[in-house]
Amino acid sequence: MSEWTKKYAKELTAQMTIEEKMSQLVYKSPAIERLGIPAYNWWNEALHGVARAGVATVFPQAIGMAATFDKELVHKVGDVVSTEGRAKFNQFQKHGDHDIYKGLTYWAPNVNIFRDPRWGRGHETYGEDPYLTAELGVAYIKGLQGEDKENLKSAACAKHFAVHSGPEAVRHEFDAKVSKHDMYDTYLYAFKRCVKDGGVEAVMGAYNRVNGEPACGSKTLLVDILRGEWGFDGHVVSDCWAIRDFHENHHVTKNVEESAALALNNGCDLNCGSVYMYMNRAYEQGLVTEEAITQAVERLMEVRIRLGMMKDHPSPYKDVPYEKVECKEHIELALEAARRSIVLLHNKDNMLPLDKSKLKTIAVIGPNANSRDALIGNYVGTSSRYITILEGISDYVGDDARVIYSEGCHLYKDKSESLASAKDRFAEALTTAEQADVVIMCLGLDAMLEGEEGDAGNEYASGDKLGLKLPGLQQELLEAVTATGKPVIVVLAAGSAIDLSWAHEHTNAVLDVWYPGARGGKAVAEVLFGDCSPCGKLPVSFYKDTELLPDFCDYSMQNRTYRYAKGNIFYPFGYGLTYSKICYKNASLSTSACGIEDDVTVSIEVSNEGAYTVNEAVQVYVRYTKPEPYEPNYQLKGLASVELKAGETKKVELTLSPRDFAVITDEGKCVVRAGEYEIAIGGQQPDEVSAKLTGKQVDVLRVTRNGDAVEVEY
Questions:
Q1: pTM score of the predicted model
Q2: What gap in Å lies between CA 433 and CA 110, rounded to an integer?
Q3: What is the pLDDT of residues 118-129, one digit of tens each?
Q4: What is the domain-level CATH number for residue 523?
């Protein structure tokens, strides 16, 4: 930010009394009318659209956007979200509405690593890979904040810093024990990129402790790493009521005053919660200084200035009109994101796409078939229209075919009607299937089953999943319907990995549609009937079983995610089929040998030899040929989304920096070593499971880096 902004913030803060300064440290900041500072509520959400503030375009949940593997698309989504946010903010201000969820400081994106498929909030993230998470997180941040660093369109916030991905039930007391290797290799990488490359304005601390220190008051995380190593100059906000946990649950402080002091003194500027309302007592007891309070307030004033909240420095976005909210162009982008997010996992004998001219009756069965909750995920706005999967299919076929429907079973209970016997919808489902030419089974979860502690629960563990099985009677229903002998297509709406091994072996096709957004049913129907080809890729691994995974509370990465897994993968990260035929050829490197600090460019020709336009995710993976036991397998280090029309060929070039070849040592150092490296490029991982599922091998090239090992910037 400019020196002018810093100077203005200092001058503004200097005019405040100590009491006025302390009043600005809580998320509901009162007005200071004599200084022209309006009241402001910092709490707002925009995970996949402006949330909790009325009507807005509802995009696919973050995990669905991650499946596009397309940072340009995610950037466009972020730009639309901030446009709608500005339009709403401008009108709210005119009507004197300064309430929660009405501001411009968006607590998104969530760039935690989805390290364990049981974590309920994993669908808020961009998946399990640090590189993909960083690429998409940076893109979304830039979309939200705009190109003008001095005049922010909105302010993004990277959360939850750090080493945070469940269990939800114990997050307020949990201590995540993590090695320096895993800390820097996995848990911090995306945050660092969001700060250094994305220029993210804010960072939110996590509920848990990290190696004994509560994250929202951690000297290691907030002072040494965030501001020290990375030079972060924005503001830090606590997760909501996380600072209260210091004394109530973590027991690292004795009382509320000590908790307030620990957080503020270690750089947590803003409190979502009530602890900082006791800052005056901490100040009177000598636990915090006025200088520390002043520094925090200056940071908060800086962002409000850059957002144009001060009368003498208006925003260039102050006239964004309300007509932009959920306009035609934004709805179409949401639909395009939904189409692009869908992953085709299985397609026996090219069952898909369906030809409606050959179908007289289509059965749509399952608890997610006509569910709005299965569309939207969590942290969501209100749509003016919802199109469920059932509605999307019915609208698509019109009068050309009959669509018949049965709920089949409740999402997780053993009956749909409280006074009925168990399996009260089974007979209807079987009858429906028997009448049809094809059955579309709509199964999965919703955000009431996987989500945040306090928001989700039901039969599960405070929002986390107990395992990978379909809940309730869904698996039994699937098996019973399949036994009718009718062709069955499984449409999975969920935000995480589910055990689909039975479906893969016994049904004709499997589509993973995630939580595709308010009108997602339209996109699902278009893919089912071949208006467009699915081309999403999995941003998470689908495991064979949780029994082979480490304990949920174990934060070591060994045997977790594709980067460290030793077998146990059913559907791999980066995997996804299409209706078209994509071919890779003529892979090459700019050199077969180079210096230790030289870049390497990899190029390949990608051809679409099928009949459908496809957005192909070209993936580059790197592996050192003589790794230490603690090091990862192949790692994603390059990515390009390429649109290919039928019959089209494009050459793709991606440059790998020395950092892309580096390893994080046991001591947390980022080191590039001499020796031989493998570079794989293609539409999937260079692993045996992907090769078996796709029938394709990935080109693997080799380069030798010469010279002495060198430490590079993390």
A1: 0.98
A2: 41
A3: 999 999 999 999
A4: 3.40.50.1700
